[in-house]
Design brief:
403 residues; mainly alpha; 2 domains; 16 helices; 2 strands; 1% strand; WXG100 family type VII secretion target
Length: 403
């Protein structure tokens, strides 16, 4: 852009209208966080430690996205107001606005008609989908079936006659419904991609406006737009590490469950030597006079309770992953403040502790290690995002005082 003022008022109004459309999309991103970004059900056992942090994170994220949406909307509104101010001066003088010498009236309110009416909205482009991830229940039985099919058959047989799944009930009390961790991670990743898409769209629209608007206000707007665009785009790498650390936690939970299943199998083998659940029923019927469903349920429940108590000793590794999620949530809420207070090494230490024996050889661990640097690098852009809408100027000559 050069120093000389010039403007196509219809293009500028269309630009402003497009930015307002973008603000409406940001409202949908915020709505996704409001409706889906908090815990729903099944946050028991180890997961109960994360319920409060995620409820707080949802509130703070919603508030932040609301500020971004408001700044974007007010910016679009200001661009339209400027276009109408320029148009009104053109109508009064009958000359191109660049040659006008008389002062212009204020422009702090939107004016209908003229530039706004004729303007074609700038396109927001293909913004990311914001459909809410489906709520699911953790499938413990399938993991058990992979390790010991006959134990899963036993659980299924008991559930058919009693309506109760000893396996699901026991493991949910220990770790919670970890499908919720996957769901909430997907919500944050979607929200981050939505914010990033909006940032890229704003940058694209700003580039489109360059040939239609020049001067001090236009130059000032470029700097403002860049800060807002980068601030929006910074949400993607930040939300991605939320998903990554939750994937690590889910991976550790599944690993714990497989270990516990091995313990269950050993306990059951101490009862009878069997290869299938049907064999177990036959042997039990011979061993005791009344080997009915009630006894089956009671004994399996007793065995699972014993294993549950022993499994408490195995949760340390999973606890480290829970602690990692807490640290990443704290980082996500205010990256710059976290890094200033605790430093990058604190975050890296949490990652190292969480990966532990699983190490970076696991898929989830590799992805987290890969994505974390980008999240740290995004902190300055996150911090620099403007909190208010763009102001095109002050007094009687808005194009003379961009700020």
């Amino acid at each position: 852009m050069g120093e000389k003022f010039s403007v196509n008022v219809e293009e500028l109004a269309g630009f402003g209208a497009g930015v307002e459309d973008l603000a409406a999309y940001l409202g949908k991103v915020r709505a996704l966080v409001d409706s889906e970004g908090g815990p729903k059900d099944g946050w028991d056992g180890l997961m109960s430690q994360l319920k409060g942090p995620f409820e707080a994170a949802k509130t703070k994220t919603s508030e932040r996205y609301d500020k971004r949406q408001t700044a974007t909307y007010m910016t679009g509104n200001e661009l339209i107001s400027l276009a109408n101010t320029y148009k009104e001066q053109e109508n009064k003088t009958g000359a191109r606005i660049r040659a006008a010498a008389s002062p212009l009236p204020g422009h702090d309110s939107r004016r209908d008609g003229d530039a706004t009416t004729a303007a074609k909205h700038y396109s927001t482009g293909d913004t990311p989908d914001l459909a809410a991830p489906k709520h699911e229940e953790a499938d413990v039985v399938s993991i058990v079936r992979d390790k010991a099919a006959w134990v899963a058959d036993a659980d299924e047989a008991i559930q058919k006659v009693s309506g109760w799944s000893p396996i699901n009930d026991t493991f949910e009390k220990l770790v919670g419904n970890w499908a919720e961790l996957t769901r909430i991670g997907n919500v944050y990743e979607k929200a981050g991609k939505g914010m990033e898409g909006a940032g890229k769209s704003l940058a694209s629209m700003t580039e489109q406006s360059r040939s239609h608007w020049d001067g001090k206000s236009a130059q000032a707007f470029e700097g403002y737009s860049e800060d807002l665009s980068k601030g929006l785009e910074a949400e993607a790498p930040l939300t991605k590490v939320i998903k990554d650390c939750l994937d690590v936690l889910v991976e550790q939970i599944k690993k714990l469950i497989k270990t516990i299943v091995d313990m269950v199998v050993e306990k059951l083998k101490q009862e009878v030597q069997i290869d299938s659940w049907k064999d177990a029923l036959k042997v039990l019927a011979k061993k005791i006079p009344i080997a009915g469903t009630a006894w089956q349920v009671e004994r399996l429940a007793m065995i699972l309770k014993e294993v549950f108590q022993e499994a408490q000793k195995l949760v340390d590794e999973v606890q480290k992953a829970v602690d990692l999620v807490k640290s990443v949530i704290e980082f996500f809420e205010d990256p710059a403040a976290y890094l200033e207070k605790k430093g990058k090494d604190s975050l890296n230490k949490s990652v190292d502790n969480a990966l532990g024996k699983a190490g970076v050889s696991s898929d989830a661990g590799k992805q987290l290690v890969k994505d974390l640097p980008a999240a740290v690098l995004a902190a300055p852009d996150f911090q620099a995002a403007p909190g208010d809408g763009y102001s095109g100027g002050a007094g009687g000559a808005p194009w003379e005082d961009g700020k």
